[in-house]
Design a protein that fits this description.
This protein has helices at residues 3-20, 77-91, 130-136, 166-171, 219-225, 256-260, and strands spanning 38-43, 52-55, 61-64, 68-71, 98-104, 109-114, 120-123, 147-153, 159-165, 186-189, 194-201, 207-212, 238-243, 249-254, 274-277. The protein is of the alpha+beta class.
Length: 282
């Protein structure tokens, strides 16, 4: 699959996945409330706890008027309502009606960064996969690299990485690559920008080649991408002009005939190299 077809397939599948993605939070009934979540709590008929907004502490606790400190301890929304109703019934009002709304899901988040349309943190509700997270982030951009890297924290403070080939996930649709995410995961889509390499002289399509930084061509590959040699090309004295990091320019001459005969290795090119194929005098 060529680069244009690959990009078209990725963008099409990403758009389809985004269109199929749910518009709002899912599985809130099963969501376990945790540290930093923001809650709105109402005990009907109790003015002090009427649409009261509180944030869960790092220890998984909240403090409410008349009820004091309450440990939520990895409870779902409905379990919190039941617990608060029990406490309110003991201390405040008979047969209390309690409602809890989760305003911010902060304890179970993943971050999507890099070459996506809308990078940032996203709520992790229920079972969410890397494909769903990228879809929620607007899909891949055109300068996305060849792989996705999931950075995951492991017990003890260390981290590990899971590498997923973009073509395998988006183009071939391999379900084994659609990894389920865990709280705190960072989904990184490295940017792989297009960079120019210039091929001039006796080639059929002289000009700038746009290539990806991760897959720079060799000398013979660049000449092939420029349409190959003309009949008048001097294949023994091809010049490569290159600038180093300090801006110092160097030039060296290479024989493609020697490369094709196996006498020397093909030359890896670098971004912004200029290849000049002179005319043969014969």
């Amino acid at each position: 699959m060529n680069a244009i077809a690959r990009i078209a397939a990725i963008l099409l599948l990403a758009a389809a996945a985004l269109a199929a993605a749910p518009a709002g939070p899912q599985d809130t009934a099963e969501y376990k409330i945790g540290p930093k979540d923001l809650l709105e709590i109402t005990v009907l008929g109790v003015q002090e706890i009427n649409k009261l907004v509180v944030r869960v502490s790092e220890e998984g606790r909240i403090t409410l008027p008349l009820l004091g400190e309450v440990a939520l301890g990895d409870l779902t929304k409905f379990e919190v309502e039941k617990k608060l109703a029990g406490l309110a019934g003991e201390k405040i009002v008979v047969n209390p009606q309690v409602t809890v709304h989760i305003l911010e899901y902060r304890s179970r988040r993943v971050s999507v960064v890099g070459a996506v349309e809308k990078p940032g943190p996203f709520e992790l509700l229920g079972r969410q996969t890397v494909l769903a997270a990228i879809s929620e982030a607007g899909g891949l951009t055109r300068d996305a690299g060849e792989e996705i890297i999931i950075i995951r924290q492991i017990p003890g403070g260390d981290s590990t990485s899971i590498r997923i080939p973009v073509d395998g996930l988006f183009v071939r649709g391999d379900p084994k690559l659609n990894v389920a995410l865990e709280p705190g995961d960072v989904v990184n889509v490295p940017v792989d920008k297009a960079v120019p390499i210039y091929v001039f002289g006796q080639v059929r399509n002289p000009g700038a080649l746009q290539v990806r930084r991760s897959s720079l061509p060799t000398l013979t590959q660049a000449i092939a991408q420029a349409g190959g040699f003309t009949d008048r090309a001097n294949r023994k004295r091809i010049r490569i002009r290159r600038k180093d990091a300090a801006g110092q320019e160097t030039e060296f001459t290479v024989s493609v005939r020697d490369i094709l005969k196996g006498k020397i290795k093909d030359i890896p090119l670098q971004p912004n190299d200029t290849v000049y194929v002179p005319e043969s005098l014969l």
